[in-house]
Write a structure and sequence with these properties.
Number of strands: 9
Structural class: alpha+beta
Largest sheet: 7 strands, mixed
Strand order of the largest sheet: 1-2-3-4-5-6-7
Strand content: 15-25%
CATH topology of the largest domain: tt1808, chain A
CATH class of the largest domain: Alpha Beta
Radius of gyration: 35 Å
Distance between the termini: 85 Å
Number of domains: 2
Length: 236
């Protein structure tokens, strides 16, 4: 593991301050940070190479990230104090500018970071709808490896169960519509039962007893001249 770099001397340029903080963030997440001239991808599972030269006309990658010896992402460094609002990593630049022979497992590189050292934004192109979001730390190499090894939605859809559940064209809005339909049906069923109970309550008592299968039969007067009523169950 790369030891934490020393703090920048007072009065350092914002770019130097950002690089020191970014190197420290990589070290804390279990990455080994190397210069391009000293690159050794076998040094650790996760290696971040500074100032990696791309193809002619594509410049440099501030940090090119390797997991298990394969390029999987980049980190673009911005000077300390730079606002990251509205700034996105240039995925097309790294897709076209990677030197031959790297053979990344996914093209374009799926994991894109943008960092000032104090604030870091992350985009995963493996998401169905990639978007940039602020993260509190750089992910560990094991985490990125697990994401790369996970089956994609298309691969799962190719299975029998996935096809039955998702169909040939899955849209998350379909799940929302289905849930709303189930909820609406449940509410309608409750309302229908309530209306049925209200109709029964509104009937005269004799009719309610007849509908419930119970009737009353008057008997002969009792000793005090009162008629006794006997409850009998109606037959089928």
């Amino acid at each position: 593991m790369t030891p934490p770099p020393p703090p920048p001397p007072p009065g350092s340029a914002p770019e130097a301050v950002a690089r020191v903080l970014i190197d420290a963030a990589f070290a804390a997440a279990g990455w080994v940070v190397q210069d391009r001239a000293d690159m050794n991808l076998a040094a650790a599972r996760g290696v971040a190479v500074r100032e990696f030269k791309l193809k002619q006309g594509h410049g440099y990658a501030d940090y090119l990230l390797f997991v298990d010896g394969k390029a999987v992402g980049v980190l673009e460094a911005k000077h300390a104090g730079h606002t990251l609002s509205g700034v996105e990593p240039q995925s097309s630049k790294y897709a076209a500018g990677l030197p031959d022979g790297l053979n990344p497992p996914v093209q374009p590189l799926p994991f894109l970071y943008l960092s000032t050292g104090a604030i870091t934004k992350f985009t995963s192109l493996l998401d169905p709808h990639p978007r940039s979001r602020v993260v509190f730390h750089i992910h560990r190499p094991q985490t990125l490896a697990d994401w790369l090894a996970a089956p994609t939605l298309d691969a799962w859809r190719a299975t029998t169960l996935g096809h039955l559940v998702l169909g040939s064209g899955f849209d998350p809005r379909d799940l929302v519509a289905y849930a709303l339909g189930v909820f609406a049906g449940w509410r309608l069923e409750i309302a229908a039962r309530q209306r049925q109970r209200q109709r029964v309550v509104a009937l005269p008592p004799v009719v309610r007893r007849m509908k419930s299968g119970v009737a009353e039969r008057a008997s002969a007067p009792g000793p005090r001249g009162r008629r006794r009523r006997t409850r009998v169950m109606r037959g089928p």
